[in-house]
Amino acid sequence: MSENTFPVYTADAIVNFYRNEVLTGQEAKHFTKSDLTPTPKPEAVQTLYMRVLHLLYRFRPECHSMIPLMENIQNPVYHEGTTAITSVYIRMQQFLPMCLVYDFSLNDLLAPKKQKTLTVLSGIMNFLHFRKQRMDMIFEKQTRFRADMDRLQTYSRGNLEAEKKIEMLTTIPPEQQAEADELAAALSELQATSIHEYQEVEAKNESIAEWKAKIAEKTQKLAQVKVDICSLKEDVAKLRSQIVESPEELKAQMEKMRENVKNIKNTIKETDESMVEMQNSVQSMTHTEAEIQHMYNLLQDLESSMNNAKQRAEEHKELTAQYEKKQKELRNLCVEEGQLKRALGMKLDKESKQNIRRQKKREMKEQHVQEVLGQCNQIHQKREEMADRIQEISGETQQLKAKMQSMRDVCSKETAKAQALYDTLTASMDELHRRIQTHIVDLKQDVAKMSADF
Questions:
Q1: What pLDDT, in 10s, does the model give residues 55-88?
Q2: DSSP 188-208
Q3: Contact of 123 with 6, CB cutoff 8 Å
Q4: Cα–Cα distance between 346 and 335 in angstroms, integer?
Q5: Side-chain half-sphere of 441: how many Cα atoms within 13 Å?
Q6: pLDDT score at 104
Q7: What is the DSSP letter of 38?
Q8: Residue spans of the chain under pLDDT 70
Q9: Which pLDDT value is given to residue 1?
Q10: Residue 23 and residue 12: Cα distance in Å, rounded?
Q11: Of these four, 76, 269, 391, 400, which has the most CB atoms within 10 Å of its CB?
């Protein structure tokens, strides 16, 4: 126990922990520091170990006192006093290696020591802390698993609702199928007519541009004619100022002027006729422009409807993409659910097998208990007789213990006296040995002298 992998707590910390976490009721109130220090009480330590085993393994304290009645055990009544301690010792030996305590002995139950008891209780305390942390982690994982399962159910419901909505949006009801076909045919016809009208509008725009070019040329010619008329009027004024008295020249000039005027009038008539034609063409163009504007409005309506259709198609694509994503998530969740179901199935199979085994063990135990109860009724009678005998024997043993104690005191006194006598005898014997050795030396010297004399 010199090299521990867990901290050794103080007695106060151990008492507070076991009173709050292990013991309950009156046991927690009566458990104090004096039960552990300076000398631990065996009864308190044994009950504490029993409560720890009950907390961890659900092994009730009264089960420690049950005697396993077998054929080879003779006089099982004698074993009743030791069964509880041996049961606690065996189960603590099986449990304490998990707490990294490997040197637990029977003496730690019958006559526990302070330091050893504190180290064992500290190891159990460390194991209980570790157990509590792991139980909290498992509880958190269980809550997360339940939340994930709830989310999975909600997601699956949402996916089903989305699938239903997508089916409602994509599928056309049979009542509206005829209208949808008519609308599709009308839309195709409108597209064809709109393309044809676009082509006609482009041709008319080209003709309008040509007519505009012609009108511009005619306007330029009219402006030139007007300029020529003005110049002719100036020439006439100049000629009038320069009229000569000769009538022949004047007549020739007048004829020339008349011809020029006729030519100008003819050109004006031609221009008027061309202007009338241009006005008619302009009116026809305004009419065509109104028709084109009407067609343009219709095309704008078609474009808006097409945009709406595109938006709906995009929404449909987005919904299909979301649906595919949801399906992927649902598949992943289904795979996880299948794995979890398999794990649960394996666990349920194990639990069913364990329950069957437990049921068999319980039946065997019940049969055994019934047999034991039948034997216990006989044993209790013997037990009462043996209890009386044990009381008599315990009284005799107490008397014998008192006599043995008095004899031990007398023996200790006599051993002290004998030790003193032994010490004096050993001292006297040492002196005798010395004297004998000196006497032997003297004799040897005398013998040597006598041999020399002879």
A1: 888 877 777 666 655 546 666 566 666 777 888 8
A2: HHHHHHHHHHHHHHHHHHHHH
A3: yes
A4: 16
A5: 6
A6: 86
A7: S
A8: 1-4, 64-81, 240-247, 249-250, 281-282, 299, 302, 305-306, 309, 454
A9: 42
A10: 15
A11: 76
Following DSSP, what letter does each residue of 65-118 receive, concatenated?
G-----TT-S-GGGGHHHHHHHHHHHHHHHHGGGGT-----THHHHS--HHHHH
Give residue 137's pLDDT. 93
Q: Which of 253, 257, 228, 229 is nearest to 243 (CA)?
A: 253
Neighbours of 449 (CB within 10 A): 10
Contact (CB, 8 A) for 9 and 25 = no
Please tell me the predicted confidence (pLDDT) of residue 435: 87
Residue 52: how many CB atoms within 10 A of its CB? 25
Give the separation between CA 409 and CA 78, rounded to whole angstroms: 32
Count of Cβ atoms closer than 10 Å to residue 39 Cβ: 13
- Measured CA to CA, the distance from residue 234 to residue 242 in angstroms comes to 12
Amino acid at 299: L
How far is the C-alpha of 133 from the C-alpha of 12, rounded, in Å?
Answer: 22
Q: Which two tokens stand for residue 240?
A: 């009038």
The C-alpha angle with vertex 198 and arms to 194 and 201, in degrees rounded to 5, equals: 135
- Based on the number of CB atoms within 10 Å of its own CB, is 327 exposed (0-12), middle (13-18) or buried (19 or more)? middle
pLDDT at 188: 83
- The structure tokens listed for 298 are 């219709």
H or E segment at 171?
none
Confidence (pLDDT) at 69? 52
Cα 140 to Cα 147: distance, rounded to the nearest angstrom: 10
Closest CA to 39 of 106, 105, 113: 113
Largest Cα–Cα distance in the chain?
A: 231
- CA dihedral sign of residues 240, 242, 247, 248: negative
- CA atoms within 13 A of residue 140's CA, in its CB half-sphere: 6
Helices 114-170/247-453 angle, 10° precision: 160
CA distances from 330 to 69, 269, 341 (A): 60, 87, 15
Q: Distance between CA 315 and CA 77 in Å, rounded?
A: 87
Query: Phi-psi region for residue 246, left (φ > 0), alpha (ψ -120 to 50) or beta?
Result: beta
Report long-range pairs for 71-78 (Cβ below 8 Å, ≥24 apart): 76/379, 77/379, 77/382, 77/383, 77/386
Stated pTM of the model: 0.37
Distances (CA, A) of 118 to 52, 54, 97, 291: 15, 20, 16, 107
